[in-house]
Amino acid sequence: MEGTAAGVAVLDTDLRFVYVNPAMARLNGVPAEAHLGRTIAEVVPGVDAGLGTLRQVLADGNTRELVSSGQTRAESPHRLRVWRGSCHRLEDAQGRVHGLGVVLLEVSDDREARAELERARERLQLLDTAAVRIGRTLELDRTCQELCDLLVEVIADVATVELLAMGGSDGRRPPDTDTVRLRRAALASVPGLREAVQQFGVPGEHVEYQPGSAVPRCLANGRPLAYNVPGDAEMGRSAPNSGRVSAYRAAGIHSALVVPLAARGAQLGTVTLVRAGSSPAFGEEDVAVAVTLADRAAISMDNARRYSRERGIAVELQRALLATPGGGAQPQLDVATRYLPSGASDLVGGDWYDTFALPGGVTLLAMGDVMGHGVEAAVEMSHYRSLLRVVAGDGDPPDLILSRMDALLTAAGTERPATCLLALADPVHGCCRFANAGHLPPALVDPHGRVRLLEVPPGPPLGADLGGPYEGVYMRWPAGDTLLLYTDGLVERRGEDIDASLARLAGLVLPHAGGPLDTLLARVVHRLAPEAAEDDVALLAARARPYGAVPD
Q: Can you give the pTM of this predicted structure?
């Protein structure tokens, strides 16, 4: 926008300037900074700005042609100046409206200006297309493929995206000195070149570039590089290695354009465009379009990369924390656990469980769910588990444990409340004591595989500053029955009433329910948990060992 002859302005929802490029400042005869925060009428009172059109675009989001006329503060030989352009509503990824983008060129008597206006309009339409087609998911490679597909449709015969290793290492042997290695994330080509370009690498492979070749140079200087109809020597220097020249010539490749991918100050990689056969060499307008689309896509790529990094950290953190229950269980009790992170659409949540033996042959079983997702929720989950271990060490019944935890969390001002179900299992005496802080009810699975939900009244979630109280519930625990604790990801479905969700669990009949607990949990997951669960799933199963049985 800085180098174009078209005037470009960004207006907020009150139609006040928040940005103008140098060309717009020259058209209006007013410095760019003097526009900011002011309306069009305040900056250029002698112009009919087409305010009705601007308000229509703001209201319905449909891009419209804009015509304005009059005189600005800039000197002009024309008695009446005329500008034509287009107006586009600006929205974020969530659909929130932030204002308008306006592109204008003076067409008082200027054929070249009209041509530039048409090019600007086409570029704006292309950006509209990119906004819809690129970055529709938080999957990095899919976003790269969407960029390549669009580039091949509009300005390239072949397009590839190659990415630097996240965090600076790809886990492979380092390349030779001065060699740059990138991972090919996406590739697209016109039908006639698909077979030919496969020999140069497919998505998922790593490509090593010789020192001084086009991709390392583009990464080093941060600017696009065009190679139009180079000789063999120049093509050999620009290619990943000089041995590719003959293959390039055989495929009819004659021009290439390498554009950097960067977002928020971080280098992501490059996108390479190729033309072959009768396609013309790359021109300045092609470079401008490629840079515009690459910049647009790079933001989506960076979002996907950040999401993947945070999700990976959170999953590893949660798995590490859940891998070592507090103090294990008493020898008279068999315990098994299962944790499944949510599908690719969500960050890992704060689901947690714990088991530890207490004096008197009893074992405390805990299942909880911290509000929210991501690394923060996983870290907060560890705080809840640590606090439970401290509070439960005095041997209090479950309802008092929850009351003490809630008081401490409320006093500390936790920002993430959590549900929690406690079960004090006594396999020797065949009983169990429960208390519930906003969690789903426990279940019993009898030896025939029938599931029964237990009525344990829920109190308020921990840390919600609602002041309890929590009700303790005593129940018999028949020999051979399996106690099942779980989080809501196992049963809840979007748009479904929770009673219907719990009824689905209570309606299960699980074959061979008296077998190994791991097998039982696998059957529960298979029957209830979808392949791409909307939320994390955590389960804990406990069963008393037969009298005299020896732990494995």
A: 0.51
